[in-house]
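hey m, so remember when u said the tokens were messed up on ur end? i reran from scratch. heres the input so u can diff it against urs
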Amino acid sequence: MVLLDIVKQYFADIGIDMEIRPMDSTDWIKYVLIEHKHDQLAQRTVSPYGHRFEPLRQLGRLRTGSSSNYLMVNDAVLDAFQPQAIAANGEDAVKKILRAANEHIAGNTLLSPCFRRGHSASINRG
């Protein structure tokens, strides 16, 4: 809960009153996936390592309009990474695109102050 308090304080410092509501997994599924009651950010950690999807599938889950985009990400720059990676020639080209996607995500999230340019966060740790 300490990390959540830090995030809440980060928003309070800029004048945003934010509710953070930890939920059991079954309650979260009902609230977010079935009843669609969340009006903003909703996050669920599936395991200690996050979602266990291979990187290209995870990028697809974060695409605007995807039926599995439970986080309601709407980012045209992020949307472009998956088709680029699919069309890439060779493993090194795909890795370069995935690294760029990771850096984009890290630089455009609440945790962006935690990362310095040149470092990346991973979408997929599975």
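this time it looks ok to me. Helices lie at 2-12, 25-34, 55-61, 76-87, 91-107. if urs says something different then somethings off w ur setup not the seq
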